[in-house]
Amino acid sequence: MMKKTAGIHHITAIVGNPQENVDFYAGVLGLRLVKKTINFDDPGTYHLYFGDESGNPATAITFFPWSDEYTGTIGDGQVGVTAFAIPKGSMPFWEKRLEHFHVSFSIQQRFRERHLHFTDPHGVRLELVEREAGPASTWHFDGISSETAIKGFAGAVLYSLRPQKTGRLLEEVMGLECVGEEEDYVRYRSEADLGNVMDIKQTSAGRGQMGVGTVHHIAFRNHDDSDQMEWKLLLEARNFGVTPVQDRNYFHSIYFREFGGILFEMATDRPGFAIDEPKEKLGENLMLPPQYEALRPRLKQVLQPIKVRLLD
After folding, report:
1. CB 130 within 8 A of CB 89
2. Which of 32, 185, 206, 222 is the most buried (most CB within 10 A)?
3. Over the stretch 247-287, which tens digit does the pLDDT of each residue have?
């Protein structure tokens, strides 16, 4: 049975101070804070979502802020680099913007593409790469327009304990196409416009350790609940240990750790982030699922206040 995922749904990382997280991804990168909620498995921790104007699949990067926790190590068994797609011709704008906010960067080449490589304040590795495909973001913030705004994900670089096994999963089970090899990387591509490219590093980066500055998991897209159940059965038939379906309020999820050690999630495209607040108000208030509503007074005392703000 051959199925195909459209590509990345979201990527979730662990960071430190939540206001620093908001300042960087909203204030510097100009993404919209589309949801301010909690980690459903650890309700004393924020779960913050940033993306395009609606937080559409293939645009949302999400975070668990762990203030004052240990720093992780980026390495095998993790997403090593998260890449964002920007419009053609917008690279000079982003070089100047990162310089303005004193963000150090380097220029790297991979598969004949120029990548602007940098890290966020807590160590998460990021890239910007110009891509023609994919709709422009209509979210405008602090001089960032649709001509320069991040569109969504370009893809990710996977650091695998077993690169060949991870590659076979992407190609033979998840329906991506192997489209090239270059030096230390093999590239796989889905049929989507955004979030469609996976580069697998072929040599070891050293063993990764989860903590602040690392990606917790990468999620791939399912159309709906029926499609997700087909994925669950398919993965189980391939001897992956798949979790029961988890209701994340804005999507439904299943999880499994692939044979290269990376935590994969399969997430439905719907119902989306407007299920509990209108599109024009996304991200403004702390939104809780019904099972945690009774905890709101205590959570407001525990969670550090955060806000989107213009930076100097």
Report:
1. yes
2. 222
3. 999 999 999 999 999 999 999 999 999 999 999 999 999 99
- What CATH number did the domain enclosing 14 receive? 3.10.180.10
Residues 151, 135: contact at Cβ < 8 Å? yes
Domain count within the chain:
1
Q: How many CB atoms lie within 10 A of CB 27?
A: 19
CA distance 87 to 149: 7
Cα 81–chain centre separation? 10
Could you tell me if residue 201 is inside a domain? Answer: yes
Residue 23 lies in a domain: yes
Quote the CA–CA distance of 18 and 22 in Å, as a whole number: 6
Q: What is the pTM assigned to this prediction?
A: 0.97
Whole domain around residue 145: which residue ranges?
A: 8-302
Nearest alpha-carbon partner for 39 in 26, 48, 31 = 48
